[in-house]
Design goal:
Radius of gyration: 22 Å
Largest sheet: 7 strands, antiparallel
Distance between the termini: 26 Å
Strand content: 35-45%
Order of helices and strands: EEEEEEEEEEEEEEEEEH
Low-confidence stretches: 1-17, 19-46
């Protein structure tokens, strides 16, 4: 009699997403952290009520998605960037200046999880429409991840607008991990300008037009969690990647 192998469900990961949008232009505006739950079907070998994720900005909760004791989703969101330019009387960002933007991911569930963050940066025009990366450079929007933070970037997935970061290890239930420490707009933004010269009545006038004048920027941070049960298959099912060389302790146990 042949011994039957235990079947591993195809979808065994639970993805939980938080989307925080940082939006400001020539004057500071705030938006709300929107929560996106990627799939309520990616569940196997774990209770739905066991997983949860919370995103904090400078120590303040800006979004969460958890199950309450009755088995229903508990969601919340809050305004972002309310203190980003509080010290700027003009309400405008100063290129090159560091603004505290400490983003923290907290495992608010009761099971250990693997976590990744997807950071997307873009410029918006006056109508809040996305500007192509070939026109205005998203790389000038800098959300700084300090060395030794424990986050590893998947450089193969990097684009001009997007970067994907994996926490190298397990985020245990009840624990939190800092991601970024500050945000700044590169001072190189001031170099992007055109100059025109007009002479009339013996007077020469120089006019400088900055390429980024009047535009706003957006940074989107999406946090996702995957169960550690059947880790290799869970991670691959959820994220389509074999990350055993990226995330420590990913195994088939």
């Amino acid at each position: 009699m042949k011994k039957k192998k235990r079947a591993i469900p195809k979808k065994i990961a639970l993805l939980l997403g938080l989307v925080a949008v940082l939006l400001l232009g020539s004057t500071v505006g705030s938006t709300r952290a929107a929560l996106t739950y990627y799939s309520e079907n990616y569940v196997a070998g774990v209770e739905m009520s066991s997983i949860g994720l919370t995103l904090l900005e400078n120590g303040t909760k800006v979004g969460e998605r958890n199950y309450d004791k009755n088995g229903a989703w508990m969601e919340s969101s809050a305004d972002l960037l309310t203190g980003l330019t509080a010290q700027e009387t003009s309400g405008k960002l100063v290129p090159g200046k560091h603004y505290e933007e400490k983003l923290t991911v907290s495992n608010s569930g009761n099971i250990d999880s693997y976590v990744r963050l997807i950071v997307t940066k873009r410029w918006l025009d006056k109508e809040k429409k996305e500007v192509p990366a070939t026109t205005l450079d998203p790389g000038l929007i800098e959300l700084h991840v300090p060395d030794g933070s424990g986050w590893v970037e998947d450089e193969s997935a990097r684009t001009q607008e997007r970067s994907i970061w994996y926490l190298n290890g397990i985020l245990k239930a009840g624990e939190a991990k800092d991601f970024s420490d500050y945000l700044r707009i590169s001072p190189e933004i001031q170099d992007e300008m055109t100059e025109s010269v007009e002479t009339a009545d013996g007077m020469t006038t120089y006019t400088y037009v900055y390429a980024y004048d009047g535009y706003s920027f957006q940074v989107q941070v999406c946090a996702e969690a995957v169960q550690t049960h059947n880790a290799v298959d869970a991670v691959k099912s959820a994220w389509g990647e074999n990350l055993s060389d990226v995330i420590t302790n990913v195994s088939g146990n």
